[in-house]
Amino acid sequence: MRDDSLRRKMMRAAMKAPYLTRDEEMKLAKRWKNRRDQEALNRITTAHMRLVIAMAAKFRNFGLPMGDLIQEGHVGLLEAAARFEPEREVRFSTYASWWIRASIQDYILRNWSIVRGGTSSAQKALFFNMRRLRARLAQGQQPLSNADIYREISAAIGVSENDVAIMDSRLSAPDTSLNAPLPSDSDVAADRQDFLVSDAPLPDEIAFEVIDIERRAGWLKQALRVLNERELRIIRERRLTDEGATLESLGETLGISKERVRQIENRALEKLKLALLKANPEFAIAA
């Protein structure tokens, strides 16, 4: 009742507002832009509330209060007034229509569902045109399958058929809470979220892995101190890089044969093993 009363009041006020001629509109726009004349702004916006109401009426089938749609359209009208450039000699109503429509559509996308949708321009076009295009296709002489309808809408709007199918599913079914109870024959109540399985590791597993990696890195850093300069270089370039150097390339760099590089590497690995076992005797027991 409150929404209907507010809507009727706003519509009566809009219908009583006088129309503006092109010259009057330009003079008022210049007064607002150059001097921030509040009276000029009020006259411009009041005269164009008919446009806001007419635009809001086009979106009344989305199930949101008409009063809210009009208020959001008024926000778009004020935004248009703030950005309007009279020197371009464009009628204000033509310029304001875009801002009014954008404001109302953004409000609908934010409030139509608890699930955020229409994040791209193509998805927004799909959201606001899906029902109209589907109804038009249904009026054809030949009945079309869903696959045919999705293909036609995909071509008309320029989105994938999969996006069309997803949006059709969203528009045809209500939102379902994850906390909604599921019917069950047992005495134990279960929610939908109880059946959502995640393959991601548990928080304690992630924390343990991070601590373990840091601990092992510390052990390795300490053990590397037992190597001489050449051994350390070979181990770093052969074992501690994503793309390990070859024996041949390291031999050319160090001026030795690749067999000699292999021998030095094996000796260095043995030294590292002994250093790690000395620092962590429990490794030997576990082995």
Topology:
Blueprint: H1 2-16, H2 22-35, H3 38-47, H4 49-57, H5 66-83, H6 92-111, H7 121-138, H8 146-157, H9 161-172, H10 203-223, H11 229-239, H12 247-254, H13 258-279, H14 282-286
Helix pairs in contact: 1-5, 2-3, 4-5, 4-6, 5-6, 7-8, 7-9, 8-9, 10-13, 11-13, 12-13
Explain what this protein looks like in three dimensions.
By secondary structure, this protein is mainly alpha-helical. Helix content is 68%, strand content 0%. The relative contact order is 0.05. The chain folds into three domains: 2-111, Up-down Bundle (Four Helix Bundle (Hemerythrin (Met), subunit A)); 121-172, no CATH class; 203-286, Winged helix-like DNA-binding domain superfamily/Winged helix DNA-binding domain (Arc Repressor Mutant, subunit A), CATH 1.10.10.
List keywords for this structure.
3 domains, Four Helix Bundle (Hemerythrin (Met), subunit A), mainly alpha, 287 residues, Arc Repressor Mutant, subunit A, 14 helices
**Proper CATH architecture of the largest domain:** Up-down Bundle
Bin the strand percentage. Answer: under 5%
Molecular shape: elongated
The name CATH uses for the topology of the largest domain is Four Helix Bundle (Hemerythrin (Met), subunit A)
Total individual domains: 3
- What's the pLDDT, averaged over the residues? 80
Structural class: mainly alpha
CATH hierarchy class name of the largest domain:
Mainly Alpha
The end-to-end distance, rounded to whole angstroms, is: 79 Å
Compose a concise summary of this entry.
The protein has 287 residues and is mainly alpha-helical. Helix content is 68%, strand content 0%.
